[in-house]
Amino acid sequence: MRNKNRGKDFCMFALPGMFCFFAVVMIPFIYGVYLTLTDWNGVAKVKNFIGFKNFAGVLRDGQFWTSLGLTFKYVILVVLLVNVIAFLLAYLLTRGMKGQNFFRAGFFTPNLIGGIVLGYIWQFVFSRVFVNVGEATGWNLFGVSWLSDPTKAFLALVMVSVWQLSGYMILIYVAGFMGLSEDVMEAASIDGASGWRKMRSIVMPLMMSSVTICLFLTLSRAFMVYDVNLSLTAGAPYGTTEMAAMHVYEKAFTSRQFGLGQAEALILFLIVACISGIQVYLTKKKEVEA
Amino acid sequence: MKKKVRAKGIAGLLAAVLAVTTLTGCRFGFASDPDDPNEEVKEVPIDTSADTFTYDASLEGTEITLLNSKAEIQAPLEKVSAAFEEKSGVHVEVMPVTDGDSPYTKVVSMYNSGTPPTMAILDTTDVIALAEEKAADLTGEAWTAQAGEYLTEVNGKVYSFPLCIEGRGLIYSKAVIEEALGEEFDPKSIATLDNFTELLEKLKAAGIEKPVSLAKEDWSLGAHHLQYIYETYDGTSEGAQEMIQQIKDGECDLDTYDRLEEFLDMFDVLKKYNVAKGDPLGADYDEMAIDLADGKTAFWFNGNWAWPNLTEAGAGEEDEYGFLPYFLNSDAGDFANQKIQASPSKQVMLDGQMASEKEQAAAREFLNWIVFSEIGQQMLVKTCNVIPPFINNPYEPADPLSADIYEKVQAGETFNASAIVPNDHWAVLGAAMQKYLAGRSDREELTESIAEYWKEQE
Amino acid sequence: MKQTAIGGNKRKAANILATAGLIIIFLAYMFPFLMVVINSLKQKRDIIKSPFSWLYTIKGLSFDNFVKAFTQMDFMNAFKNSLIVTVSATLLVTLFAAMLAYYIVRHNNRISKITFALMVASMIIPFQAIMIPLVSIYGGTLNMLNHRITLIFMHTGFSMAMSVFMFHGFIKGSVPIALEEAAYIDGCTRGQTFFKIVFPLLKPIISTMVILNALAFWNDFLLPSLVLTDKKLLTLPLSTYSFYGTYSADYGTIMAGLLLCVIPILILYIILQKQIISGVVAGAVK
């Protein structure tokens, strides 16, 4: 009786979702892993099995490791900024202030636009609007396009990502804050020195599940940044802002080393998996303690 | 309370700003400007009265696809396809390659998905990469006899149809130069790098401080500039191939290769007089067209495909624009200082793998129609505004840039050399060139990057 | 007494400061959109030479760009396609993900654990890594491309992991098992319990996920561009392709087209925005 029920349950509740997921994500992924062991160039009819040669190629591809290093720098900045900003804004926006719905909607708007288009808008803002402002005002900050200087182009990339991702995270943090009970919020809303302490000792632990989710999402998204990277800087100036995901794409399609690109994608995946695994483990532990 | 009022005020303000945006938009909206540069270019009439082309009636109703990677002729190609359908009954669906992915990526994913386009307009390198694996053999086609030196062969066979000739060099604006110098300008009088530098100095003295526009895009720097070092080896595609082989084999030492040295001499001159010298990597492509049309600059390194941008910027077909060669040295007898590089850069490949016999036949008919029918010939030149590589095509392109290349082709003042380089050449070495353009690397480092790049190729 | 007064003042000051800060940040957030709105009404030349100025344009402001974008995009048709794909995929993924997450939370067996772990891990697979295998399986082997249903199915599959992850967290935290047990005692079947008792409780997270998923589907470019090549099937983002040229972009039309794409989703967001809040509040009160 019980067993029968269990089987029925599984078919009814789990199967449709699992089928979609496995068919669209897992099977192509496994096939993709198999392709890393071949010398396929994306076109040819024949795929020769070449073992781990592609992975040896990854070790030799210095540019990949450079881009990975840059990605780490980018991820650290983006994750920190996004979460701090989103957390604070969400906090401000759940205190019953007039017009908070309007603000919430406003902060979310960057997410209404797809990544590629978004990058184009910002590219336009950085290379035309800001430069124009610079010409008109003589401000050195905007004298030359940010996108033509390696450091500033990198900062521009960070800024745009923070701008986009924080809106998304505000939504989750807002939901988290709204899930807290009235008296917790009341306690947290008392300002001054004790307010901060209460924030840390009362609110933070209760918000840990939101923090876990947001950290995980920002981490994985930042690691895999591609479309904004492509449309905002496209690696310019001279390849200094090429992040790992973009490098992988370039390897596979521009350099036509499909197996190598696929192998690099796999390595990127493993790195992100390890790091976010550790992060979820650590923050989950805090949740339990609370 | 105060807080509430304030928030409300801000919200109101924003709403007001938006409302004003819309309102002012409305008020200005109906004032149509007669000189609007964005206005659609007037339709060039196509004479369809004569048509001696014989259509194969059995192909009627066939549907084929054409993947177009030359975005600026997307709309014209759709017109060509409509005209062809009207005459032959074959429907050619013109599919664009979107900006997000490269033509090659698109074709590869389409092959993987089992729905490749019947025909694809691709760069020569892409055609060579795909030819033997995917393309149909076009060696025996009638049009090959009309294409002359513009056929591309892979192991003795023709796999692609040269769609157009594209030439590149230094675009000059005759009016700007003459106005600044107050004298007649004869492009023939500039025969060497020294002459060119003198001219730039004269323009500078006449008030045009920095007369050159130099694009920062990696495809411009990595492909259009840098590839001169291979293409000017002897001015032929074979020569360029030989040169590349020598670099690969280590037979040619780039440090002492004079074409590289000369190329950088010229590039340095362009760099010195670059209008965007203060921020060379911030240069904007669209602004360059505007600057040239406005007379802020006198030169723009580009190709005849830049015409739509110039028109948009306000240039008209009656204006005099033309090309100067990419001067390499002070030897007036050097062909590189006399001739413009012009070659068939876009090629049509016919799928030989998935397309049915009938579809292939329809595609072959379409290609022949472009070359041999009166309508196809006209449309290639007048509607698509490209330079036809086929000697039997009597029509001449109308815009000054294409017309100049066309004249130079007729007069033998062009050289047809296209270097076949790996697909990432423009991206990798374009980055190295950007660094050099920005003044963040020197010749030595650039040379090293080039040598390094070729060493990595198998 | 005195202390509270000081505290009150401080609090007031802090409030004003916070509000002011909020407004400044808000304006910075909106700046690019303002640029889009302004420039969508201008001609290319003015956009390039003076992107910031508004009234001092040579060619004046007009709705030409919108008209051009509207016709070139074949807006109504693309809108219909986007709507069909977005609505169907959103409904499917919401339903399937909620059910799967519910199953995983309530059945702590091996299948649940493995599936959940795989899903979480899959959220960090770069799309580029499955792109080509995906098209070669669905196109080359199964020949299923160029159908809306394929795109809907793929959207559902790709957003499954993230959705299950979110539902999982919510069900675990906010759906008390006692309610379900009561329902069984009353004779409800599994299915009835889920749809009558559990599903309504999920309202807050459902509105959030509907917005996030619908947005992603509406805006996605890469996946539709791989699946759909037939002109009649193009979605809104795909239909703006022709504004981006090989060498330069038609800025005015791009921005107008962008606004045309965004407006529908903006309306959906404004409608659902209220629902999220009431949903979350209702959940919090209980």
UniProtKB/TrEMBL annotation, chain A:
Keywords, sorted A to Z: Cell membrane, Membrane, Transmembrane, Transmembrane helix, Transport
GO BP terms, alphabetized: transmembrane transport
Membrane topology type: Multi-pass membrane protein
Annotated GO CC locations: plasma membrane
Domain ABC transmembrane type-1: 68-279
SUPFAM superfamilies given in the database record: MetI-like (SSF161098)
Principal localisation: membrane
Pfam families: BPD_transp_1
Entry superkingdom: Bacteria
TM regions (residue ranges): 12-34, 74-93, 105-125, 153-180, 201-223, 265-282
Location of this chain's protein in the cell: Cell membrane
Family statement: Belongs to the binding-protein-dependent transport system permease family.
Protein name per the record: Raffinose/stachyose/melibiose transport system permease protein
Native source species: Lactonifactor longoviformis DSM 17459
From TrEMBL, chain B:
Keyword entries, A-Z: Signal, Transport
Signal peptide boundaries: 1-31
Keyword Lipoprotein applies: no
Gene3D superfamilies for this protein: Periplasmic binding protein-like II
SUPFAM superfamilies for the chain: Periplasmic binding protein-like II
Family: Belongs to the bacterial solute-binding protein 1 family.
PANTHER family: ABC TRANSPORTER PERIPLASMIC-BINDING PROTEIN YCJN-RELATED (PTHR43649:SF34), ARABINOSE-BINDING PROTEIN-RELATED (PTHR43649)
Listed name of the protein: Carbohydrate ABC transporter substrate-binding protein, CUT1 family (TC 3.A.1.1.-)
From TrEMBL, chain C:
Gene Ontology CC: plasma membrane
Superkingdom of origin: Bacteria
Protein keywords: Cell membrane, Membrane, Transmembrane, Transmembrane helix, Transport
Compartment annotation: Cell membrane
GO biological process, one term: transmembrane transport
Database matches in Pfam families: BPD_transp_1
Every ABC transmembrane type-1 domain range: 79-272
Primary location class: membrane
TM regions (residue ranges): 12-38, 83-104, 116-139, 151-171, 197-218, 251-272
Topology of this chain in the membrane: Multi-pass membrane protein
Record-linked CDD domains: TM_PBP2
Family: Belongs to the binding-protein-dependent transport system permease family.
The protein's name: Raffinose/stachyose/melibiose transport system permease protein
Species assigned in the record: Lactonifactor longoviformis DSM 17459
